[in-house]
Every structure is written in structure tokens, then in C-alpha cells.
């Protein structure tokens, strides 16, 4: 990662109110986020979904409708109007905050018309196994986008542009139906979940079709220019053609430059080898969210006195740190969503310290942990409201060489030795059991300094001796981040405004 110590915010959670004010709230919060050390925001799916103003956007209907056209019950999306989105992007650009677009490219939903097509029903647990004989079926596969009236793109989508669907409209029956036609089959460059991972939901886009390829590649260029984007998050990337993803990225690189955009895929798996294979087949700069690490955090947080020294075993950040976006939670893992990886609340400060303060990986923090979660399972901000201070500690002090002190399975620590540009450094110690302390070397350049915990969870002072060592304590089941009490920036802690819902 660059010397700047960037941090990504997933800029939404599943149960954000559907009041079309989310972009306004984010725009008003930009300065607060920048002051805390957040430089990049992963936007919610901004394209019109089949559910209109109530949809989170993963039921994508029209890639080119960013809340501009009267479709699916109104002009705005759940998050707001295109005008509000553009205003957010303009202010973010002015402030040096990058926006990443959540690209939902696997499928389409909410078709305008039914069409007849030939299909083969397949086994829902193994997409490579046929059930019965091929037959004709009526399905919702006609996308004409009448509200947009050919603006930005004249491409319409019909049965031949899809490889599968999940609803037999003639018989009112759900299932998985592979669409038949010349040169049609599931993509071979996808994951192997359920035999072949190409089909996920709704009307499955067929990226072997040249009209589909060109339309989506054109959209990529258009949306980058429209919103001053600096990156993409690819939803469910193992479920659609990796060959197409390579071509999509190559087109972006040709127009905008090889390092102009940050690209990360959601490849949900607990198997790091499967993820490494995917990355090896991507011929461009590309990252994946470290889902194996989420599973590790979940397991350790729910195991009494688990061995903290094993927290990075079989994770992407251990195997290929330059390609790992480290994450604690996201919209998929919050209560009631698709991935069951609960992380106990007591462990979140430890987990966030591990991804934010160490040298490896690019950390992503979750909107729901920063601001709170709404819905049927509401939660206050995580980490006792201290997550912004952990982010700020990263921005100000987490630089330089790293040394681990991992002798005790339940009390571990590490130091960052600082750099010429960021001379302060830090020491982090955490416990998932009893209180403890570790003697750690922060460097002779800090001899005589007094260090205190920026989180305020431990009130002692640590004196750095002439050899650059200090004895750093930690309360039981807690974490402390120790920094010179006179380090520049100490006055900035504890200033974050987490009441985002009063800001629009």
C-alpha cells in the first residue's frame, strides 16, 4: 500500500432507510470521514433495481439508470437521485476522496416483457446435471428500458443475451433453467460452486454474447467518466465469466491507464487456494476481499481462549497481502443476510486493530460498525464507538517496519517502527483472556518518551527506556494502542460524529 495508509469505507449497510437521502448524508459526512483517515468510499449499488426506491440495487435492472429515469416506480434509487450522486462525486473529487462503484454484472431483474425460449431445467444443487428433457418456456427476459428511451445506450436485452433464469412464468414455477441456443452453455471461467457457479439468481447475463460484452464495456467507461470514479467493486465475481472480467479491465486500462482504477472482487469462499487460483488467472492488477479471514475472526471470537497467534492462518492477507482487502463485516455478513459468519462484539476492536494497524493488506471498514445498524437487528456503533480512533491511529502512526511479539496464545502485540515521514510509530497489544503486558521495542529514537493509550481503555503511562523498550499493558479482553503522548495529532482523537442520520 502507498505511504498514505489509505482506508476504505463500505459506505452503506443493508438497512439504511429507504428515504432517498443516503447520498446527501454521505456528502455531508465527507469532511468528518476525511479527518478520521478515510480516503476511499465503496458506494452502494447505484443502478436502478427491480424494486425501485426500496431496492438495495443487487436486483439490478438497468445499469445506465443511476436514479435519473422514471422506471420501476420512480426516478431515484433507494439511495437518492442521480443529481445527488453527482453532487457527492463532485465534492468527493474536490476533497481528494475516491469513490468505488459496486458493479452488479452477473444478472438482471425486473424484465419489461415475457419471451419464449428453449430451456433445459438443471439440478439446483449441481448446475451441470440436467433434469428432464429440453422444452419451450415463457420467461421474463425482455428488457427494453422504456423510461430511458435509448439515452446512453440503445442496447436492449432479450432471451439470447442470457444463459439462464430462475422462473417459469408460464407455469409459475421456480427452478434453474439453462437457456438453449447456438454456442450457449454455462461459462467455463467461473467458480465450481454447485458444479458450475455461473448461475446465481434472476436472469443470468451471458457474457459469451458479443452485444452483451460491448454494452457492459461501454457502460464501464461511461460510469467512470460520469462519476469521476477511482475504482470498482465487482459483486459475486466468481459467478460470471472471468474471461469477460479480464476484457472489461483491459478496456478500462486502455482508456484510463493501468493504475488509474482500484479493482476488487467479492469472491466469497473459505478456501484461500481457490481465491489464489482466480487471482492467477486475472492478468491485471486485481484484489479480492479476504473472506477466509472473516471466517477466522468468527471462529476465534466464538472460541474461549482461542489462540490469537493463528488468526492469519490460511488467509489471503497471509498468502498474498498485495491482493487482499481485509474486512471484518460487510452487508452480506450482517444479521439476516446471506453469509453466516458472526463475529462477537467484544472481538471487533481486536479484529479492526489487526487489519488497520498492521502493514499487510488494504483494510475496509463497515458503515454499520462505524455509524450503527438499523432494521430488525439494530446495533450501535462497534468497538464502543472507538472504531474512528483506530482508523485515525492507522492514518497517523501505523507506518514503518513491523515486529511481532506473539509468544502468548491469548495476549499478543506488535510495533510499527515509524518512518522519516511519519516518525511517531505505535505499539499495539491485545488480549482475548486475562489482562497482560508485553515488553516491546519501539526504537531508541523514542528513548525517554511517555506513551499512552489513544483509545483511553488503559490509563497507565509507559516510559520508554534508553534501549527503546517499554512494558505495554492491556486490560482483559481488550486492546490498547500506545503512542507518544506528545505525538502530533493526539488532539484529534475522540472527535468523530457518528450521528449521520441527523446530517441530511
From TrEMBL:
One GO BP annotation here?
carbohydrate metabolic process
Against SUPFAM superfamilies, the record matches this protein to: (Trans)glycosidases (SSF51445), Glycosyl hydrolase domain (SSF51011)
- Cofactor(s) the protein needs: Ca(2+)
Q: Where is the Glycosyl hydrolase family 13 catalytic domain?
A: 6-394
- Molecular function GO labels: calcium ion binding; hydrolase activity, hydrolyzing O-glycosyl compounds
From the UniProt record, list the coiled-coil ranges.
none
The superkingdom listed in its UniProt entry is Eukaryota
What keywords were assigned to this record?
A: Carbohydrate metabolism, Glycosidase, Hydrolase, Metal-binding
Give the matching InterPro entries. A-amylase_thermo, GH, GH13_cat_dom, Glyco_hydro_b
Similarity annotation: Belongs to the glycosyl hydrolase 13 family.
Which protein is depicted?
A: Alpha-amylase
